[in-house]
Specification:
By secondary structure, the chain is α+β, with helices and mostly antiparallel strands. It has 3 helices and 5 strands, in the order βααββββα. A 5-stranded mixed sheet has the order 1-5-4-3-2. The longest helix has 18 residues. The radius of gyration is 13 Å and the shape is globular.
Length: 103
């Protein structure tokens, strides 16, 4: 299955990786490795994440307090946000509503 990252999700991912790397060199790369592993799991099992909001799901990233917020279309997995568990809950919903209008 094809993966599509919305621009905001790419920004979330970059910011989180930079934050971890600022804390300890190489930790940002470990974070990105875990995100990649989560994406591979999603490609194999797109329905595995728990539903969070109106057809959107969350897949947890191992070892880090982040989740991938996504939805499945017929041919792709659309990543809407890379969301910290405690920071700004639901911030991605505005992105999701814009994406829904673009469909």
């Amino acid at each position: 299955m094809k993966l599509i990252f919305l621009a905001g999700a790419k920004q979330d991912l970059s910011a989180a990786a930079r934050w971890y790397d600022d804390r300890r060199r190489g930790l940002g790369d470990k974070f990105l490795d875990e995100v990649e592993a989560a994406l591979e799991r999603l490609k194999q099992f797109p329905g595995m994440g728990s539903e969070t909001f109106s057809g959107y799901r969350r897949c947890f990233v191992r070892r880090f307090p982040y989740g991938l917020i996504y939805r499945c279309t017929g041919e792709a997995i659309v990543i809407v946000a890379v969301s910290h568990h405690r920071r700004r809950p639901g911030h991605w919903r505005r992105r999701a509503s814009r994406e829904d209008k673009a469909d």
